[in-house]
Amino acid sequence: MTESTARHTPGTPCWVSLMVHDLETTQEFYGALFGWSFRPGPEQLGPYVRALLDGHEVAGIGQLPPDRQLPIAWTPYMASDDAGATAETIRHCGGTVGVGPLDAGKAGRLVIATDSTGAIFGVWQPAAHMGGSGGGRPGTAVWNELVTRDTASVGKFYEGVFGYTEEAVISADFDYVTLHLDGQPVAGIHGVGNALPAERGPHWMTYFEVSDVDEAVDRVVELGGHVLRPPRDSGHGRLATVADLEGASFSVVHSEEMAGG
C-alpha cells in the first residue's frame, strides 16, 4: 500500500511539505533522521519528491527556483473537496492566495495561501493522492500548530474557512486554542505574544513522532541541524523543537497521547 485510501474530512491537515534550495542534501538529512526513502512526485511541481516510510507516503519535499527567496518552512495542507471554492473563501475571510488552484497531475489540486496574519498554509483537493498516511508512527507528522501573537486575532479566520470549532485551554498564562472538526481535535493555535520571533512572524509548526526525543535531537545535531528548544516534558509527552540544514523548524515528540495523534 503506497497511498492513503481514506478521504480526509475537509479542513483536516492531510499532508506536509517543505520547499528548500538543496533537495538532495535535505533528503539525506530527513532520510537519516526519520528513515524516509523517496520517490519522484508530480512533474507539475518541478523538482519534487515524496517521502515514504514503510511504503506509506508521509511528506513532500520540493526544490525552490534559485531566484525565489521564500521562507524555508514546513507547511501543512488542509483537505478540501473543492480547492477553487476554498481559495475564494480564504480571500473572503481576509487571507491571500499565493499559488493556485494548481493541478498536480492526477494527484489532485493545491492552493498555497496566507491567513489573515500572514502565516503560510496549503489546501489539498485529493484525486489519486489522498494525502499522508502512517497512523502516527515514528517518522510521521502527528500534529500541526499555528504559532502566532494571540489566538483571538486569527481563530475566526480558520473557523470561517474550514468550519472549525474552538476549544480554549483554560490557563492564566497559556493562550492556546484547539481546533476541532466533528468533535475531534485536528490542529492548534498557540498565542505566544512578544515571544513570537520578529524575523519569522506567525507560522505553522509541524510535530513529527519519534521513539526517543533525546536521541532524535542528538541525531539532528550530528546531521548538521540545530536545537531551538531542548527536550522537555509536556502534557502530551516529551518534545523538542529543532531546525534542519536550511533552517526549517519542526518539533519532535514522543506522544503520551498527542492531541492530534
TrEMBL record:
- Highest taxon of source: Bacteria
Tell me which residues make up the VOC domain.
12-126, 140-255
Family annotation (PROSITE patterns): VOC (PS51819)
- Which SUPFAM superfamilies does the protein's record reference? Glyoxalase/Bleomycin resistance protein/Dihydroxybiphenyl dioxygenase (SSF54593)
Q: Which InterPro entries match?
A: Anthracycline_SecMetBiosynth, Glyas_Bleomycin-R_OHBP_Dase, Glyoxalase_6, VOC_core
What is this protein's record name?
VOC family protein
What is the native source organism of this protein? Streptomyces boluensis
